[in-house]
Amino acid sequence: MHLYPPFDFAVFLKTGAALLTAFILGGLIGFERQWRQRTAGLRTNVLVAIGSAAFVDLGMRVAGTDGSVRVISYVVSGIGFLGAGVIMKEGTQVRGINTAATLWASAAVGAFAGAGQFAEAVLVTAFVLSGNTLLRPVVQYIHRLPITPEGAEALYRVHVVCSPEDVTEARDLLFEELERHHYPIREIETLSEGDDVVELAAILVPTTAKTQDLDAITAHLERHQNIESATWTVSTES
């Protein structure tokens, strides 16, 4: 009775081919990320691809097609935890989402390689690289376009600066003024707080606000003696 299955050189070569394919293709994806100095670069993408290929290959060898399907489902969910580690929030901006998505795609490449579908693994790699390179000029072009109420649904903030002792009054004035113009507020946050001044910002519910209304609101707020200055900003970041 054998405790372990006998060594099969043909199966061993198949596993080697799967891991080598995952290594090369994961390396191509990782090289592009490393070139752009992203958080998850060459080694991370290679290891994700190889690990996915190894687990899928093992599941197929131990439990056949059903085993590989179960392993693939665990790979899909498990990579999500790894991807969450490269996502960082800096102020109002969230960075690393594209890198996390690339790791997820590298896992898909590895899963294809582990399942012996090498042509499909190459195809997925080509699409991932195309998404990270060919679409970059399109993204940069879109980012250079001015944000207008007619062109995009954006996030608007109305800012006021006041003295620390007038914060409560400034909050009430900000709320009342926006309510009077029928602009619902998602929240009022404190952007900065010092000994002399405090900056508040009312975040509007995403909508297509009118610039004339926002100009009128900030002009009216500035006339209050409790508010030193008022302005508004618009962005596509939450």
Automatic annotation (TrEMBL):
One Pfam family here: MgtC
GO CC aspect terms: plasma membrane
Compartment list: Cell inner membrane; Cell membrane
Transmembrane feature ranges: 12-31, 43-63, 69-88
Keyword Protease: no
Limits of the MgtC/SapB/SrpB/YhiD N-terminal domain: 19-139
Family: Belongs to the MgtC/SapB family.
Membrane topology: Multi-pass membrane protein
The keyword RNA-binding is annotated on this UniProt entry: no
Keywords: Cell inner membrane, Cell membrane, Membrane, Transmembrane, Transmembrane helix
Species name: Caulobacter vibrioides OR37
Residues of the MgtC-like C-terminal domain: 156-232
Name under which the protein is recorded: Protein MgtC
Main location group: membrane
InterPro entries, alphabetized: MgtC-like_C, MgtC/SapB/SrpB/YhiD_fam, MgtC_SapB_SrpB_YhiD_N
Biological role: Virulence factor required for growth in low Mg(2+) medium and for intramacrophage survival. May be involved in regulating membrane potential by activating Na(+)/K(+)-ATPase.
Lineage start: Bacteria, Pseudomonadati, Pseudomonadota, Alphaproteobacteria, Caulobacterales
